[in-house]
Amino acid sequence: MTRLKRTPLFDLHAELGAKMVPFAGYEMPVQYPMGVMKEHLHTRGRAGLFDVSHMGQVLLSGPSWDAVALAFEALVPVDVLGLADGRQRYGFFTNDAGGIEDDLMFSRRGDALFVVINAGCKDADLALMRAGLPDDITLTELSDRALLALQGPAAGSVIASLDARAAAMRFMDTCELSLCGHTVWASRSGYTGEDGFEISVHADEAVALAQRLVEDAEVAPIGLGARDSLRLEAGLCLYGNDIDAATGPVGAGLSWAIQKVRRPGGARAGGFPGSKAIFDEIAQGPATKRVGLRPEGRAPMRQGVALFASAEGGAQIGSVTSGGFGPSVQGPVAMGYVDTDFATTGTALWGEVRSKRMGLKVVDLPFVPAGFKR
Amino acid sequence: MKFTEEHEWLRPDGDEIIVGITTHAAEQLGDVVFLELPEEGTTVSKDDEVVVIESVKAASDILAPIDGEITEVNTALADNPGAVNEDPQGEAWFFKMKPSDPSQMDDFMDEAGYQAFIA
Predict the structure, then answer these.
(1) pLDDT tens digit sequence for A126-167
(2) Residue A48, in any domain of the structure
(3) Closest C-alpha to A293, from A307, A310, A312
(4) In this predicted complex, what is the ipTM?
(5) Mean pLDDT for the stretch of residues A50-60
(6) What does the pLDDT look like over A326-335, one tens digit per residue?
(7) Considering chain A, what is the average pLDDT of its residues?
(8) Per the record, what is one GO cellular component (chain B) (predicted)?
(9) Which of A123, A330, A355, B25 is 20 to 30 Å from A364 at the Cα level?
(10) Is residue A197 pLDDT above 60, yes or no?
């Protein structure tokens, strides 16, 4: 067994009473003494601090912005070249079959590209980039940086109290801030559906900054348990659950991330792995679609629950990919894939839980309106 | 009151036994959000799955501690599953059962034994 890795905040988690669990090769806090339910509601009501240092941080640099952006466009179906300095975008690496190898956030820092990738895919992503990028692009894994996420309606005022420049940042803006003497790279984004910031800070300074943030009366430390229920209520995909190498962006409802310029007829159409399969799916429509699901009873329907069109018999028409209890919704919520014929909002379906079929409805995502600062 | 290694408590109540889960178990489960309770009148054997308890993160089964008949179910828990976290060894009992062999109770731990078991 390989030894689990620890983030720079490991000792602080222990001090704050976290229950630690193995996650993507790391020992991570799943919850603090407050408990998942209260942590979730605290984040929606005030602000939650998450340690996401297990995620990969990578800097791509090269002879010019155009060179870096065009090189990265060979790996993602996203408009990279058109990204303004100080702006961030969501994207994903695709494979030759049009499946998703990982999803990611990237931002422009002058002529360089700062990329944040999932912990579980880090090694594969690095290999994919090293193999796919030309020699004049330098890839630097920033393993000396920690990543904190401060999420929730109070996040803006908390960060602005430390550096007033934060107040001017809009959703998906990124810039350098000085927080209590620590120079950080901040983006106004996150993965909870709330307003918030992701803060890349030097590993040596991460504990001091995290301590300062949790001292604020508005801020509580939040674990991976609540991070999962928050992103589920926000309708956001978890890589490995809701999207993976066998699912394409169109059926996953992520076509919005493929800008016109990269689609057929666009100035830089295609040129990424699986472009033909993805363009075919855009033209013909996907066979299965990711949908929001609201179970009718109180029983949660979790990942793997089989979905049917009728209360008895019939072939399986889909399955749940993420599901659980939504603390803000005060009931069970789920996402899953269903045959396109059954993907219309309002469609009544049945999920098989412990050999019994229970009703659920196809609903619009997200379950909780987003609080982004547009 | 007796305790099982599966973190259930059993409290004799006349010729019936009241069954719930321990404070330790409730703490381990975290926030309870849903309970599937048995039907009154069901005959169960020791180790039958009688209750499904869902916390925010996972579903767990509660097993029948002894043979017998379920005589009463705490239906108030259906509307307020969070009571399991608030008062697991009091208000939030799961069901009452009439044991077919009360001597099965002798196998279980007393409070001191259970505290040592979870320590």
Answers:
(1) 999 999 999 999 999 999 999 999 999 999 999 999 999 999
(2) yes
(3) A307
(4) 0.85
(5) 98
(6) 999 999 999 9
(7) 97
(8) cytosol
(9) A355
(10) yes
pLDDT at B95 > cutoff 60: yes
Q: What CATH code is carried by the domain that includes residue A174?
A: 3.30.1360.120
- For CA atoms A166, A168, A171, A175, give the dihedral sign: negative
A224 plus A305 within the same structural domain: no
Q: How many helices (H) and strands (E) would you count in chain A? A: 8, 19
Which residues 301-330 of chain A have a CB within 8 Å of chain B? 302, 324-325, 327
Interface touch B30/A327, C-beta < 8 Å: no
- From B86's Cα to the closest Cα of chain A, the distance in A is 13
- Would you tell me which residues 217-276 of chain A have a C-beta closer than 8 angstroms to some C-beta of chain B? 225, 229
| Residue among B36, B54, B56 whose CB faces A37 most closely | B56
Q: For chain B, list the strands marked E by DSSP.
A: 2-3, 8-13, 16-21, 32-36, 43-44, 49-55, 59-63, 68-73, 95-99
Compute the distance between CA of residue A161 and CA of residue A182 in angstroms, rounded to an integer: 14
CATH code: domain of residue B78 = 2.40.50.100
Cα atoms in the 13 Å half-sphere on the side-chain side of B88: 19
Residue A3 has a pLDDT of: 87
Q: Which of A214, A329, A254 is nearest to A100 (CA)?
A: A254
Distance CA B41, CA A126 (A): 60
Q: What is the pLDDT of residue B58?
A: 85
Single-letter residue type at A357: R
B37 falls within a domain? yes
Closest chain A residue by Cα to residue B80: A298
C-alpha to C-alpha distance for B55 and A20, rounded to whole angstroms:
18
Distance, in Å, from the CA atom of A215 to the CA atom of A268, rounded to the nearest integer, reads 48
- Is A141 known to sit in a ligand binding site? no
- Contact flag A298-B56 (C-beta cutoff 8 Å): no
Q: Which two tokens stand for residue A318?
A: 């889909």
Whether the pLDDT of residue A1 is over 60: the answer is no
Burial (Cβ within 10 Å: 0-12, 13-18, ≥19) of residue A265: exposed
Residue A327: which CATH number?
Answer: 2.40.30.110
Give me A63's structure tokens.
């002879």
Cβ-Cβ contacts under 8 Å, B30 against chain A: 31, 35-37, 225
